Amino acid sequence: MFTKLINLNTMKEAIAILTGGGPAPGMNTVVGSVAKTFLAKGYRVIGLHYGYSGLFNPAPKFEDLDFQKADYIFNQGGSYLTMSRFKPTDKDFEENFNLDFFKENNVKLLVTVGGDDTASTANRIAKFLEAKKYPIANIHVPKTIDNDLPLPAGSPTFGYQSAKEGGTVIGRAVYNDARTSANWFVVAAMGRSAGHLAFGIGSACHYPMIVIPEMFNKSEITVDKIVNLVVSSIIKRKIMGIEYGVAMISEGVFHALSDEEIKNSGIHFTYDDHGHPELGKVSKAHIFNELLEKKLKTLGIKVKSRPVEIGYEVRCQTPIAYDLVYCSELGMGVYKLFSEGKTGCMVYISQDGFVSPLYLKDLQDPTTGKIPPRLVNIESDKIQQVIDNMMHYITPADYEAAKKYVANPEEYDFRKILNW
């Protein structure tokens, strides 16, 4: 009876779904919504563990996702399907690809959830299977808490809003601590290429100093400039009679530092399979706090500062309502595109609620083939208003008062540091 049941199950058309890269709030919402939708249409839904590594393994770990599992996970943080950053090589395709998995399970669609690296690998797999005379559709659901995928009309990537909310909860508590204890804190937030998350949290918490890589659009970024921006805020607040504050620094500034700057700062990175520095292994807040303390000691300015890292704490938090709705729409959108015969695309939900395919070729740089990150528009009113009205820093009007703390206040002038 059991064998017969299994045979009947494998005769059904199936879809396979995997999660790649790092987690973001809403992963389970996407997976659960995809599963519920396809199950209702009569498909078998297979969840692959360990990302792409399972497809290059003779014994992949996978399981059927039924309604009960989908319904249990859809509103949970983290990813029920174990994630992996595995990126297959050409040799892996030649020697290790598990074509039997697709054939034996009658898989007609591969759904991938991840960033641009995950999407690119999905396209490679689809082309490989087509060459092997096993055509299969692939549809990708883009995620990143960094919000740096260039989706049309400024649409956020899923997970960003939840991560910003979680980071803001931490950020508010840190600001209250600073005010309560008359101390300063240096907070670092995730954001590999862009400062969306750092600026979002920093502006929500009214931090007096926010440093993101996009600010250095007219000046080379250096460790000394970053530290001087924080010092500028500390001095400005002292002039205002305020002895506390928080400086937010985006981890993305590390990517903009030259090799010489990184070497001189004493930072040593390891790299992941995609060639990205594994920033999660280094406390950026700790590094910058030490550099700040050293600078303040040199200047003779007595300020206590503490480091706080906002990183892994927000990747697996429970998704807020925004992402629960958004990710459900994306999951259901996968079926809509599949039913229309779309493949090799990402699912996109427009601001007015319509589902459409978004093709990687329309986002990729024609020369490099890579997807350029969506950066913070530093010139926008949204950003400039925060810089002009919420942040505190030395301006020419403060030079005389600032001489009480530094002999050369112009070196700590916010706009001169950035060459604005």
Can you describe this structure in just a few lines?
This protein is of the alpha/beta class and 420 residues long.
Characterize the structure shown.
With 420 residues, this protein is an alpha/beta fold. The protein contains 18 helices and 11 strands. The model is unreliable at 1-6 (pLDDT under 50). The protein folds into 2 domains: 2-158 and 319-363, Rossmann fold, CATH 3.40.50.450; 161-315 and 390-418, 3-Layer(aba) Sandwich (Rossmann fold).
Largest sheet: 7 strands, mixed
Gyration radius (Cα, Å) is 24 Å
Strand-residue fraction? 5-15%
Low-confidence stretches: 1-6
Count of alpha/pi helices: 18
CATH class of the largest domain: Alpha Beta
Write the layout of secondary structure elements.
Layout: H1 2-11, E1 14-19, H2 27-40, E2 44-48, E3 62-64, H3 67-73, H4 90-95, H5 99-104, E4 107-114, H6 116-131, E5 137-142, H7 160-181, E6 184-189, H8 196-204, E7 209-211, H9 223-239, E8 245-250, H10 253-256, H11 259-265, H12 284-299, E9 305-310, H13 312-315, H14 321-339, E10 345-349, E11 355-359, H15 360-363, H16 381-389, H17 399-402, H18 414-418
Helix pairs in contact: 2-3, 2-14, 7-8, 9-12
